Amino acid sequence: MMEHEMHPPANKTTALYVVATPLGNLGDITLRALEALRTVDAIACEDTRHTRRLLDHHGIRAAVFALHQHNEAATAQKLLKLLAEGKSVALVSDAGTPGVSDPGARTVAAVRSAGYPVIPLPGPNAAIAALSAAGLADPQFLFVGFLPAKTSARRQQIETLRAIPAALVFYEAPHRIVATIADLAELLEPQRTLVVARELTKLFEQIATMPLADAPGWLAADANRQRGEFVLLVSAAPATQELPADALRILRLLLAELPLKQAAKLAAEITGQHKNALYQQALAWKDQKL
Ligand code: SAM
After folding, report:
1. Do 21 and 93 meet the contact criterion of CB atoms below 8 Å apart?
2. CB–CB of 199/205 below 8 Å?
3. What does CATH list as the number for 127-234?
4. What is the pairing mode between strands 167-172 and 16-19?
5. In the predicted model, is pLDDT for residue 288 greater than 70?
6. Beta strands 16-19 and 141-146: pairing type?
7. Confidence (pLDDT) at 5
8. What is the pTM (predicted TM-score) of this model?
9. If you measure from the C-alpha of residue 128 to the centroid of ligand 1, how many angstroms do you get, rounded to a whole number?
10. Which of 37, 249, 255, 258 is deepest in the core (most CB within 10 A)?
11. Which is nearest to 199 in space by CA: 222, 219, 229, 172?
12. Counting atoms of ligand 1 from 1, which one is nearest the CA of 201?
């Protein structure tokens, strides 16, 4: 018996099937996903026209209805009604895995709390595809997704991510890529590695690796590099450098009187140590409440 036959066929089970769909290349869909889409009674999708293209490509005729972030609460009720009638339903988003920077979580929660099974059908996801081809050595990663659109909120969030000892994974759209990369390059350590994964699985797929400091220039050098859909990966924060005892003492004294950033800057001027190392040390003390 093949693995995918272990669940009963989709049309025999009243359940919500959460189905991952391609990021671009219509061939990136699993056998289980095709079987579920073929056999369910209805498919809830973000954009019905978009999903129709995928269904047409695979010769699937199915009833579809829209479930997107603006109607998710109301449409989840419609979906529950179908399940109450004994029907099976699939949930898909425009690309990749529903619920990952996409609608779906509220629907899934409603279905599960109503007591119906929710069956995940795993498949494409832009973050995981980018990580798989990035070659970063970090054993851990933090999926951040989209940063805030507003500059001040975006910069603030980047500051909070700075000392995390894991690779950072961001999603970004073309109209914000220049601003986001400029902020990452300015606020994170310049020697950290940036991987730009653009248009994954599509015609103009590009995966480029560079020190974060070089990224704004790389992006500006060719307007095509600013087009399409992006996953950005930044290697983990460098380990805190060993600082000499007198630098630590001065930093402590300054921290007692000044805000963290200012204390680190002044301590760097006094001791000749790197500002980032002092800043990271101060952050670590603050996190550990030392
Ligand atoms: N649910 C999707 C997933 O599982 O990856 C993510 C949907 S989110 C609304 C769309 C964002 O995902 C894009 O702005 C981009 O950051 C990323 N993305 C989606 N498709 C991509 C692709 N082919 N190449 C690079 N990034 C992609």
Report:
1. yes
2. yes
3. 3.30.950.10
4. unpaired
5. no
6. unpaired
7. 46
8. 0.83
9. 10
10. 37
11. 229
12. 23
| Confidence at 2, pLDDT banded by 50, 70, 90 | very low
**Phi, psi for residue 56 in degrees, rounded to 5:** -60, -45
pLDDT of residue 238: 84
Q: Is 206 in the pocket of ligand 1 (CB under 6 A)?
A: no
- Of 21-30, 160-169, 220-229, 259-268, the one with minimum mean pLDDT is 259-268
Question: What is the residue whose two structure tokens read 């959460």?
Answer: 18
Per-domain residue ranges of the chain: 9-124, 127-234, 245-288
| Single-letter amino acid code for the residue at 35 | E
- Look up tokens 């380990």; give the residue: 239
Amino acid identity for residue 204 in this structure:
F
Q: Which of 86, 94, 81 is nearest to 54 (CA)?
A: 94
Longest dimension (CA), the chain: 73
Per-residue pLDDT of 150-198, as tens digits, reads 999 999 999 999 999 999 999 999 999 999 999 999 999 999 999 999 9
212 Cα to the center of ligand 1, angstroms: 21
Pocket test for ligand 1, best of 101, 201, 226 (most atoms within 8 A of CB): 101
CA separation, residue 50 to residues 45, 68, 94 (Å): 9, 13, 7
Q: Do domains 9-124 and 127-234 have the same CATH topology?
A: no
Distances 224 to 102, 221, 290 between C-alpha atoms, Å: 26, 9, 48
Position 36 pLDDT exceeds 70: yes
Contact (Cβ atoms closer than 8 angstroms) between residue 213 and residue 185: yes
Topology of the domain comprising 9-124: Cobalt-precorrin-4 Transmethylase; domain 1 (3.40.1010)
Sign (positive or negative) of CA dihedral 136, 142, 148, 153 = negative
Residue 235 near residue 141, CB atoms below 8 Å: no
